[in-house]
């Protein structure tokens, strides 16, 4: 039996995100502050967001709640407006906004909040409830979306395993939370990943000789 080799430790930071999350701003700030440290980003489906952390495939994940938080740290970032995606020629498309009661009798597409839901609406499978970010990023000419006024919003959170000791995690948290490059926490994280060098003891000066007395006059 062949014993699998232990994979080499990853350098840098790997961050996952569920569909609808945009990382452009945070990636730009990372590149400005840490130009030599790689930041890899990967998209994961909602039903795989916790597994990506557990399998150590990624260090952090922008997850769409709810997520099993056992052994996981989570920082809530923002809420997403719920919308309904409709075929462009649907009768409800004439309204500016919708309520849950308007969907009575409609076939609501069931599945993850991702691009496939929008595609299924375009194919005529029904209507879909998704976060606004999904509908916006997957916009098509044959579908429209309308705000769903009385539905609960979804929440995006930045998550990571509690036992992940990668010091770059604190650096990324600082960027997402808007800390400056000189804040104490980000500076500490940056120092933690730098090799420590022994401090040179300060040079000691020899004591100055005391001036000789002039003696007494007679």
Layout of strands and helices, then pairs:
Blueprint lengths: L12 E5 L6 H10 L5 E5 L5 H6 L5 E5 L7 E9 L1 E6 L20 E2 L5 H8 L4 E5 H6 L5 E5 L6 E8 L6 H9 L7 H9 L26
Parallel strand pairs: 1-2, 1-3, 6-7
Antiparallel strand pairs: 3-9, 4-9, 5-7, 5-8
Helix pairs in contact: 5-6
Task: Characterize the structure shown.
- This protein is of the alpha/beta class and 218 residues long.
- The protein folds into two domains: 13-79 and 154-192, 3-Layer(aba) Sandwich (D-Maltodextrin-Binding Protein, domain 2); 82-147, 3-Layer(aba) Sandwich (D-Maltodextrin-Binding Protein, domain 2).
- It is built from six helices and nine strands, in the order βαβαββββαβαββαα.
- The protein has helices at residues 24-33, 49-54, 115-122, 132-137, 168-176, 184-192; strands at 13-17, 39-43, 60-64, 72-80, 82-87, 108-109, 127-131, 143-147, 154-161.
- The strands form two sheets. A five-stranded mixed beta sheet has the order 2-1-3-9-4. Strands 6-7-5-8 form a four-stranded mixed beta sheet.
Rounded mean pLDDT score: 85
- C-alpha end-to-end distance: 104 Å
Count the E strands.
9
CATH architecture of the largest domain: 3-Layer(aba) Sandwich
CATH fold-level topology of the largest domain: D-Maltodextrin-Binding Protein, domain 2
Features:
218 residues; alpha/beta; D-Maltodextrin-Binding Protein, domain 2; 5-stranded mixed beta sheet; 4-stranded mixed beta sheet; 6 helices; 9 strands; elongated
């Amino acid at each position: 039996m062949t014993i699998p080799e232990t994979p080499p430790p990853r350098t840098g930071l790997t961050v996952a995100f569920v569909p609808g999350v945009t990382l452009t701003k945070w990636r730009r700030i990372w590149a400005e502050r840490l130009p030599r440290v790689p930041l890899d980003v990967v998209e994961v489906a909602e039903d795989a967001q916790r597994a990506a952390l557990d399998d150590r495939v990624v260090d952090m994940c922008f997850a769409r709640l709810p997520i099993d938080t056992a052994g996981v740290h989570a920082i809530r970032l923002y809420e997403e407006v719920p919308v309904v995606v409709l075929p462009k020629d649907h009768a409800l498309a004439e309204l500016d906004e919708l309520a849950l009661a308007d969907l009575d009798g409609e076939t609501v597409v069931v599945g993850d909040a991702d691009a496939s839901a929008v595609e299924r609406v375009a194919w005529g499978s029904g209507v879909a409830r998704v976060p606004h970010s999904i509908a916006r990023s997957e916009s098509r000419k044959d579908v429209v979306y309308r705000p769903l006024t009385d539905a609960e919003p979804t929440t995006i959170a930045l998550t990571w395993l509690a036992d992940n000791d990668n010091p770059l995690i604190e650096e990324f948290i600082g960027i997402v939370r808007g800390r400056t490059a000189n804040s104490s926490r980000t500076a500490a994280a940056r120092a933690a990943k730098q090799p420590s060098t022994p401090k040179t003891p300060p040079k000691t000066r020899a004591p100055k000789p005391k001036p000789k007395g002039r003696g007494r006059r007679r």
